[in-house]
Write a structure and sequence with these properties.
Distance between the termini: 47 Å
Radius of gyration: 24 Å
Helix content: 25-40%
Shape: elongated
Largest sheet: 8 strands, antiparallel, barrel
Number of strands: 16
Order of helices and strands: HEHEEEEEEEHHHEEEEHHEEEE
Number of helices: 7
Strand content: 35-45%
């Protein structure tokens, strides 16, 4: 009997894990890629499907909200609403309200395929629509979230090498110089002096700051957005990052921890919201919150 109960609990845990993974895969932005079952549709229906979905954009947000636009960036065709998965994780139910008219309706889309980079939905009229992740706009992200930046910062911090830190920040963030502040003491009793960049970065235009501590260590601060956090997390999960020494150390629900040698990289494990700001610190650590 005990073995039977244990087996049932294990099966339930596996099912719950798979369901959670499916929901996580679904979250984020998607754009039209193709009609997945075009060979099964007659010419008229295929043309109608292409006309209806060719510019479609969908975003499944972490908080259960949804944005849906069948005409891409057209503000008059934007729908906002909520989404949920059925118990079997095979269908998406959506409540959609058109922004321009406040007219609402419900929709149900059957999931025909789902990977990290491709989503297939049966959205009606026998057409299965294939979606892909939109390309990441790397203007800025390519520099601020490039794994090479974090490799160089981790090395500079571990070796207490201010010149190496400055060199990395100059190359990736185009920092031209710093203004030195007065000596301060933090709540842990550490004395430090801030070097604030002459440029300002981030959505709130906060300058990048290098803090020099009396014990020879350094910290680095810069505003980061949720999009940049997401991009960085993906970079850290790549084999290239593992080959460079980055290891995932777990999460406490609030923070997600990575490690490279004796430098810990930690950032917000929770969604801080699109357009929010966050920080990086490197004093034996890189922190984004």
């Amino acid at each position: 009997m005990a073995k039977t109960i244990l087996t049932v609990l294990v099966i339930l845990l596996i099912v719950q894990t798979i369901s959670a993974q499916k929901a996580e895969l679904l979250k984020g932005k998607w754009e039209f890629k193709d009609i997945a079952n075009k060979e099964k549709l007659d010419t008229i229906i295929l043309k109608q499907a292409i006309l209806s979905f060719a510019k479609t954009q969908i975003e499944f947000m972490h908080d259960g909200k949804l944005s849906y636009n069948p005409l891409g960036n057209n503000q008059f065709s934007m729908y906002k609403g909520t989404w949920s998965l059925n118990k079997e994780q095979t269908k998406v139910s959506a409540v959609l309200t058109q922004s321009s008219s406040n007219n609402s309706h419900t929709a149900e889309w059957e999931i025909k395929g789902l990977t990290e980079n491709e989503l297939k939905l049966d959205m009606g009229n026998n057409a299965v629509i294939a979606f892909r992740r939109p390309p990441v706009e790397l203007t800025g992200l390519a520099k601020t979230c490039n794994i090479e930046l974090f490799n160089k910062l981790a090395s500079g911090v571990a070796n207490k090498d201010l010149d190496a830190i400055k060199s990395a920040l100059k190359y990736y963030l185009s920092v031209t110089g710093y203004t030195e502040g007065e000596k301060e003491t933090n709540r842990w009793g550490d004395s430090y002096i801030d070097l604030k960049s002459n440029e300002k970065f981030g959505l709130m235009k906060v300058p990048l700051t290098i803090s020099k501590y009396d014990n020879g260590e350094f910290s680095v601060y810069r505003n980061m957005s949720q999009e940049e956090i997401n991009f960085t997390r993906k970079e850290l999960k790549k084999a290239e990052a593992a080959n460079k020494g980055w290891k995932y150390k777990g999460t406490n629900g609030f923070w997600e921890y990575w490690e490279n040698g004796d430098v810990v990289f930690w950032f917000s494990a929770k969604e801080i919201g699109s357009g929010s700001d966050t920080n990086i610190y490197t004093k034996k650590q890189i922190r984004m919150n």
